[in-house]
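Troubleshooting: if your tokenizer reports a length mismatch, compare your output against this known-good record of 347 residues.
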Amino acid sequence: MRIATAVVGLLAVLFQPLRTPPVSWQPQTSGVTTRLRGVSAVSPLVAWASGANGTVLRTTDGGRTWVPRPVPDAGKLDFRDIDAFSDRVAYALSIGPGAASRIYKTTDGGAKWQLQFTNGDPKVFLDAMAFADETLGYAFSDSVDGHLVILTTSNGGREWERIGDDRLPPAIAGEGAFAASGTNVALVGRTHVWIGTTASRVIHSADGGRTWAAFPTPVATGEATGIFSIAFRDTRHGVVVGGNYRKEAEAANNVAVTSDGGASWTLVRTRALSGFRSVVAWVPSAGERSFIAIGPSGADWSADDGYTWTPIDGDGFDTVSIAPHAIVGWAAGQGGRISKLAVTRVR
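Known-good structure output:
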């Protein structure tokens, strides 16, 4: 009976009708040619983007114009992540060894930037950050000497401090994160934090960062392979994506889903992703169980919590962000490319 039930379920997935993904793209002009790996959508009018050569951009008119908001003396930094809360407040994270890893904050729309964190450990290499709100955030680094490195905000979001090794599980040799889209860290509320790593593990805290545990996933791992992005729609349902960034058209064992908060993960094999994907995002404006996954070679859409995927027409990007409580978002990538995406709700 169990075998028959499983077969029926598999056939239902294989032969369910394919729906056209409810996404349309509107290419925009960023005014730069550098690769943009960070983007943060605030509203249908406001978004920020960041990338190489110290690039930080902001739009306040829905993307009709993108205005540089440069960080002083940061022209050589690579801003792989940006997280914004309004047209005035944003954090920007740069990657690199030693002092190249930094976190800046602006509260006046980028007219001035405060350097909040400068890395003093030559082995630390920041990869990504995420926030519950303007005052509470987490940043992740490649591991150092067998220890995971996680930073969290303190003093009302004005400073950063490293979480003690005694609160973290040991790192796997060489474990870190791929700084490809600024989406290795996911939060739900102020208590749940998940981090996807190059070792295809998920590091989770359910108590606001006081204690942490590590859970394996079936996503393939290797020198250029692992989890690149993680997204949760609530405290139980989440998706991790990745693959081999050197083989963008290959889609082998690169997406997994969870329905128990990340304690266990199921590899998606049937109607999976159509290529390497560097970012996944929840799209509640299209439906409670909707996710989008994007990589340099293309994009895919899921309307069932990541269990099945449908390719989306259009170019690929490195990163994407969906505006809260809105039906729009932005994707950014190589050559300064930015596109606004509009979402139609599926009923």
